[in-house]
Amino acid sequence: MTDRMTKEQRSKTMRAIRAQSKLENLFSKALWNRGLRFRKNVRNLRGTPDISIQKYKVVIFVDSRFWHGCPIHFKRPKSNQEFWDAKISRNRERDKEVDAHYIEKGWHVLRIWEHEIRRNVDETVDSALEFVQAAMREYRKPD
Predict the structure, then answer these.
(1) Which SS3 state, helix, strand or coil, does residue 9 take?
(2) For residue 30, what are the contacts with CB-CB under 8 A and spacing of at least 6?
């Protein structure tokens, strides 16, 4: 099937999509219900982290198995493989660049795979809370 839009129109349409996954919302609501206060999808932070706590320099990304190329669950599309290989490869590179950016600036970066939330939300939330609490302790530590 051919696309009815020009490449520029399709690009503009795709860029405008700002959907959040149901799993991302499930995870963030569980964190919020456990008392953690944060901002979601802060666009002026590099990589637009799914969850950020700027005071404690914490960013959390929820990575999907497809777009971020999960080493366990990624299924390579059968059509247009050259395009998708390049796309997923670049997404992985960008993830590393974003992580390096935050680490260089002294931030704490946590990446959570979508399958971790699917497998056990409570365990993933517990793990994320421990991560944030460790960052908070480091922030409060006298120099």
Answers:
(1) helix
(2) 121, 122, 125
